[in-house]
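Quarterly update from the structural biology core.
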Amino acid sequence: MKKLLVYLKEYKKETVLGPLFKLLEASFELIVPLVVASMIDIGIANEDKGYILKMCLILALLGFVGLVCAVTAQFFAAKAAVGFATKLRYGLFAHIQTLSFSKMDREGTSTLITRLTSDINQVQNGVNLVLRLFLRSPFIVFGAMIMAFTVDVKAAVVFVVVIPLLSAVVFGIMLLSIPLFKKVQENLDKVLGITRENLTGVRVIRAFGQETGEIKKFDEQTDELKRIQELSGKVSALMNPLTYVIVNGGLMVLIYIGAIRVEAGVLSQGQVVALINYMSQILVELVKLANLIITVTKAVACGNRIQSILEIQEGMEQKETVDTKDGEKADNKVEFEHVSLGYHEGGEEALTDIHFMAKKGETIGIIGGTGSGKSSLVNLIPRFYDVTAGAVKIDGKDVRDYNLTELRDKIGVVMQKAVLFKGTIRDNLLWGNENATDEELWEALSIAQAKEFVEKKENMLDEMITQEGRNLSGGQKQRLSIARALVKKPEILILDDSASALDYATDAALRKTLKEMPGDTTVFIVAQRASSLMHADKIIVLDDGEVQEIGTHEELLKNCEVYQEIYYSQFGDGK
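Predicted structure, tokenized:
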């Protein structure tokens, strides 16, 4: 949690002025019992109406000045807390963007979303309350005790006993609450994970009639969250009754001692009222402090969870720049040199001893059964994952020697799942190249076989796409995703099973236009259909993370059993 305080450095003035004005308000509040005591002992005792009116005006003035100080403190505290949360949210989001795919896979999407939303909101509330009350409440408590000593030393001993007892209760409950609130947030992660999974897969759930089972699973997880919340709530709820018991016990002792000392003529009635007021102030402030401790406990637990994400190393060291002039003269655009990949340390390898070369302008097909490692292989080229053995080279240079931005500028990637963002078609295409002209956009759409359906849209390039492209079909989303990558005019184009939603005719037209593209773009096509790869210069056949054979369609049809099995399952054996 301490490391997060760096995000407050731009709000040093507010973090000082907020508590300062709160202390000023508290100082005026501590004077009030003395004014009331003076009013009783002098004004009321002597029936001096002028003096009473004067004291009333002083009380009103103290109240007004205290109000101004309180409002000013609230303003500075809110400004610092909201600004801190904004900076922290930006910093956390920026850090998440730097994490490798493997680190993000390990943490999980639902956990990261909870940290960016609920956890940061809790920390923001904690910072706000700390700036307002963290100094004010202890100041009032100890200030009231000191002021009580100025009134009567013997009676003030009650304060000396009460305050340590209250401190023990407050901090004891705080120590019990912190781990419980951490568990609350962890269970909230799980509920969010199930919710996200169900909303994303609602069609599948309904298709298989699993609504009852999913509702039961959701209920079980929310019941667990409820149980932990109730337990943490019960522990926190002990704060107020215990503090009330201790303070009211102190009040009874104070009234008893005060009565005896008034009767003995040692104290005046006004002084006893002042002592009771100081004890009441302590009660009010400790109730506030109790609520503050609960909020701060939540904030600390959430802050530690946020810090745990910020402490995750990026996992991919990158160079500032790399000289590729010599490498660009090489014939081999992409080289895999005995590459192996394991997603988790000590886990089973997803790829084993992959070795091949792709020349400039070549089209490389990658085929294999489900889970054979096709996507894993192409994800190594833009360095979404790092190899565990061997090396992947582009233009003769290891991808680990490139600056990531420089590396990925060379590559256009179309993922397995077509992802579009809310905005116009033009906005989405310009992700490939923000300076692209309309002519270049239409050229990319034409190659991707998307020009026809875009022209039919009322606003054409300015047609709005809803979140995740929900107003487009699966094939339309895939074609726009391909066009977005083509606008970039990449040196290497990776199509990761990105034509699966296209019909055979559109797929064939797409392959033809890709082959006729100007320039020496090296194209990697991952596909389930053998027909999508028959034109490729080389086809890599994968099985269980290993290369079974590399060759042309004709060569593989003669020599590779795995390829034969895939091909004949789709086209028949011709008998």
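The chain has 19 helices and twelve strands.
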